[in-house]
Recover the amino acids of this structure.
């Protein structure tokens, strides 16, 4: 769907909310992406020349990076030189007309630029200002650089991932960064709700390490209970058996047994109903303690069948299971198609391209396909004219002096 056609339908519940996006790479762009997905107008403010660093991350297609395309759909790009007094004045003027500011520089950088929380709050007391960083705005590590794998290590998450007796393995999805795309919007939406009562904005301090620690969930509570670090169990569960990846005749399959009822279904599905009430395996604790024996029984059955046969068998017995799909197969599976998780959009340089659709839907209120990620500076003139009310002559002068691009 073209950008013009998309703008004639419901943008989403955040329609009318304007966001200044000073983010780059992944954690911050994931947060502003969520806001754009829900209908906010996101102005991605990029430096001249290079723009967001990920615009140059290979592989590329006709000068456009796969990485940048992945987390910048639905946004508008404006190029402004923040190192110039005139460029700084432009974004401060824009701050007076926006609802939210999101940034993910190291603590202190925005303040040095003259765009810190105190100054922006003075310009626009209603502005909600969200800072996303590796370790947060306080603490002994606040100034240390961080990347996804570093955060996984520091949060405890990495220590649990991998096979027993082997080195820990980084999570395949960069959850250390992406947690900012979850907690950032939660904080922003909460502050928008609060602003309806108080009329004032708020500074939000999102630490990616805090976010991953928050996701430890029952794993952290287990450590509190027994005072020991949970050990790596690979794809298995520390307390639930059978739970994990089992061999098939061609490939492998996931099985997950969470309750006694599912244990009974597994026993019947593998043709060993007598195991349902076997005193060796009739509680969660007994199955956990007999992990190797239980897994061997299940594996002896699964490895005699193909993945397709096992899917049919386990579906018939309502056993929680899944074939292990590659990314391309996962995106093309019937469930993803039915949910419209891949859509086509029109990119300014690449033409029609497939992108992943929004993960949040609203019943009886369909949004159009997201706008394609912008090319660098694609919306500079439109934002200057339509939001800041600058004349064509003024915009031309700013371009001539390289304040904007």
């Amino acid at each position: 769907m073209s950008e013009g056609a998309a703008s004639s339908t419901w943008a989403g519940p955040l329609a009318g909310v304007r966001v200044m996006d000073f983010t780059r790479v992944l954690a911050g762009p994931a947060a502003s992406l969520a806001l754009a997905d829900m209908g906010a107008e996101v102005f991605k403010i990029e430096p001249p020349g290079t723009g967001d660093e990920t615009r140059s991350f290979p592989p590329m297609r006709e000068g456009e990076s796969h990485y940048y395309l992945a987390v910048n759909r639905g946004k508008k790009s404006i190029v402004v030189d923040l190192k110039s007094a005139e460029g700084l004045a432009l974004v401060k003027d824009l701050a007076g007309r926006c609802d939210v500011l999101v940034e993910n520089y190291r603590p202190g950088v925005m303040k040095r630029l003259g765009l810190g929380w105190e100054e922006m709050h003075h310009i626009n007391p209603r502005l909600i200002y969200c800072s996303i960083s590796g370790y947060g705005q306080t603490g002994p590590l606040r100034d240390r650089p961080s990347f996804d794998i570093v955060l996984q290590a520091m949060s405890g998450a990495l220590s649990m991932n991998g096979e027993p007796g082997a080195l820990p393995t980084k999570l395949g999805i960069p959850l250390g960064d992406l947690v900012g795309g979850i907690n950032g919007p939660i904080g922003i939406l909460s502050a928008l709700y609060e602003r309806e009562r108080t009329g004032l904005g708020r500074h939000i301090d999102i630490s990616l390490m805090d976010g991953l620690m928050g996701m430890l969930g029952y794993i952290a509570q287990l450590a509190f209970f027994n005072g020991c670090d949970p050990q790596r169990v690979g794809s298995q569960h520390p307390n639930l058996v059978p739970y994990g990846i089992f061999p098939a005749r061609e490939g492998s399959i996931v099985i997950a047994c969470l309750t006694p009822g599912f244990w009974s279904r597994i026993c019947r599905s593998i043709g060993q109903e007598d195991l349902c009430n076997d005193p060796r395996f009739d509680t969660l604790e007994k199955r956990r303690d007999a992990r190797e024996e239980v897994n061997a029984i299940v594996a002896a059955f699964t490895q005699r069948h193909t993945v397709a046969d096992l899917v049919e068998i386990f579906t018939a017995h309502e056993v929680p299971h899944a074939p292990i799909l590659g990314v391309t197969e996962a995106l093309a599976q019937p469930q993803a198609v039915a949910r419209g998780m891949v859509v086509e959009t029109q990119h300014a340089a690449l033409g029609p391209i497939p992108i992943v659709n929004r993960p949040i839907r609203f019943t009886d209120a369909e949004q159009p396909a997201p706008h394609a990620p912008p090319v660098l500076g694609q919306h500079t003139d439109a934002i200057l004219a339509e939001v800041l009310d600058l004349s064509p002559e003024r915009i031309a002068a700013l371009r001539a002096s390289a304040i904007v691009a």
